């Protein structure tokens, strides 16, 4: 009897337990989203490690692991391979990289809310602006001035960059070092092709008789002709003249944003409601005459003609890059999109994606990143051994560090020519694409796997190597340019009578190079942030719907609704905030041009 | 039967100790998170800690309903939540019927096969379900290829970006995924039905359908009602993964449920405070729903759930 009772009470308890757990699970989804649970995410080994006498350079006898919080990285974990071995041998340093691109954006929020982002930080300008007043960034003014290589950039680059954050940095201290700094000039553009310009497969373009394109209607006609003639790849995959993807969309629809650049209007990073031209005119995105609307109309027309990939709204960039690799796309706009298909072997047969200028375009292009490129290197205020981190950053910016970062190992990837310049070895030409195994003396592993996963640098590859007098970027070495003179290049050059696309656009007065401005644009209040996000979502969704609208009437009706609805979401406030940012850019550009 | 004598005091202490772990769990996971609600009343922007954030009172609640566009948006979200959950409740008898028919299959191997095949999708994550959906229903997918081959469609049908019948499509996906799994409880219930009831029915000359109608179905109803109640309790929690992976510009208006809306706001705009405000509203609606169902239960069955 008592046994049965016991059993019974056990069952009751079990049931009670289940119910409690059930309630817990249900009520647990209350309002805890604002809770930061990352206090335990900080590093266990966080004791300050006193470095040796800084006068004689830091002591390397103790191994040091640097936690790198890195917005630029698309790899998370310990740096391994040849670069890992290199810095282990040289500095006794191991890099432990944290990547928001891999782990998600909340990594920044949780770690910064917990008060320690990491030892070495590669973060956005706007984040620097938030983190300085929160006390998470170390003042490195004196440390930078005592370095061998970085100190040379203090007056021209680092000091003015940091001074611009005057709201949070009234004393003009140095907190962050900008990324990819070029040493050309604030108004020079050194690359051979603009970031965004019309690109098409050369053989198909010739296949329809190389028609001269005067405007976007000609472009649509040409795409249609090409599509009729080449509906599928040689192995039977369907070709889409235009393909779009959604996962890059941020403030507005990215594929629309960058085509606006063809006609001289850019949307500066950090804004989402305006477009800006080289003269400094600020146009609201929802203006009836905005370039944004004209490009929407272009895509809509293209879709009406059946030229837009129907998978566009549901595919992501990975799927697009697969299509690019298979040559399934006829119109490209982003200079790097070429690289998925173009190779020297195909180039020798006149096959590859090249720039096909359109007569009425007038491209807006930012100059070399003389002042840097939107992100900064900084040291966390709780960093374990800041002197050794500084020493490492200085080495990264030395000729030796830059060569390792951009071009790999001398003797393996490149070698010296008789005239003292560099040329790629046979292995070096394809070491990246083929992930060629690296000899054991360098640490083994694949070449690409072992490259620096920091994926960012303070001094960029458009700086001149003092030993050779050429850029660090191997694509611009004389030897590389000679080797790349393929049929594709020479045919293109003879048709357009220019050495490269940038040259063509400049000769024909079809491009405006505007100074690349890299500075503090101020942080949004949470009110503006909130409104911006709602407006952006609305603008993006409507843009997609407009491109795929059934007819012109639906297109127009969606546009009218967009214009009125965004007002209810706070358009005026966000537009005002963006106008302030744009005016600052316009002013700084004018100053840079005046100092030319 | 003589046993050890407890004083009432020490007995209650030991009983209390039995439930203590669960009370601690409840406090930590259900009540402590409520503290997070304070974020809704501050202008919180990491990395500035809450203690240094300005107090803004009901600003965020007010901003949710400050003009017609926003009210419409919120109403649409609530409508979607109710619509999709409502569809689920409307068809909540489906797993029961499925279980009944499944147990009626006499070929054991075939029955096991069907059960395995229908249960399996429950263990696939929504992300994988979406890639499956993409492979099947994209313009180059299997379905479009098939329709094209048999000559039913000239141009591909864009299933995934259709803005029509979104609730129903989503209901079909979730049913496909969970049907077999939800049937398990009912199958267990059917196994528990007294054999003598069947025998009596057959002796009385009942047909197979009559047995189902008069023996099986009534024995299943208690189970059904318990599960229905649980489903109503989680009316607003229709999850976000499914809608998150399936959402795109075209179906967003009909697919954005409360949980997804909160996520889109918090992760898209980094606006934690506003998201907390919305999720507080959600808890409020939940409490209202709970009490109304409880009231209904009292009215109909004479006893409440809580």
From TrEMBL, chain A:
<protein>
    <submittedName>
        <fullName>Carbohydrate ABC transporter substrate-binding protein, CUT1 family</fullName>
    </submittedName>
</protein>
<feature type="compositionally biased region" description="Low complexity">
    <location>
        <begin position="36"/>
        <end position="46"/>
    </location>
</feature>
<feature type="region of interest" description="Disordered">
    <location>
        <begin position="36"/>
        <end position="63"/>
    </location>
</feature>
<keyword id="KW-0732">Signal</keyword>
<dbReference type="InterPro" id="IPR050490">
    <property type="entry name" value="Bact_solute-bd_prot1"/>
</dbReference>
<feature type="signal peptide">
    <location>
        <begin position="1"/>
        <end position="27"/>
    </location>
</feature>
Automatic annotation (TrEMBL), chain B:
<feature type="domain" description="ABC transmembrane type-1">
    <location>
        <begin position="78"/>
        <end position="293"/>
    </location>
</feature>
<feature type="transmembrane region" description="Helical">
    <location>
        <begin position="272"/>
        <end position="293"/>
    </location>
</feature>
<keyword id="KW-0813">Transport</keyword>
<comment type="similarity">
    <text>Belongs to the binding-protein-dependent transport system permease family.</text>
</comment>
<keyword id="KW-0812">Transmembrane</keyword>
<feature type="transmembrane region" description="Helical">
    <location>
        <begin position="167"/>
        <end position="193"/>
    </location>
</feature>
<keyword id="KW-1003">Cell membrane</keyword>
<protein>
    <submittedName>
        <fullName>Putative aldouronate transport system permease protein</fullName>
    </submittedName>
</protein>
<feature type="transmembrane region" description="Helical">
    <location>
        <begin position="214"/>
        <end position="236"/>
    </location>
</feature>
<dbReference type="Pfam" id="PF00528">
    <property type="entry name" value="BPD_transp_1"/>
</dbReference>
<dbReference type="InterPro" id="IPR000515">
    <property type="entry name" value="MetI-like"/>
</dbReference>
<feature type="transmembrane region" description="Helical">
    <location>
        <begin position="16"/>
        <end position="42"/>
    </location>
</feature>
<feature type="transmembrane region" description="Helical">
    <location>
        <begin position="82"/>
        <end position="102"/>
    </location>
</feature>
<dbReference type="InterPro" id="IPR035906">
    <property type="entry name" value="MetI-like_sf"/>
</dbReference>
<keyword id="KW-0472">Membrane</keyword>
<dbReference type="GO" id="GO:0005886">
    <property type="term" value="C:plasma membrane"/>
</dbReference>
<dbReference type="GO" id="GO:0055085">
    <property type="term" value="P:transmembrane transport"/>
</dbReference>
<dbReference type="InterPro" id="IPR050809">
    <property type="entry name" value="UgpAE/MalFG_permease"/>
</dbReference>
<feature type="transmembrane region" description="Helical">
    <location>
        <begin position="123"/>
        <end position="147"/>
    </location>
</feature>
<keyword id="KW-1133">Transmembrane helix</keyword>
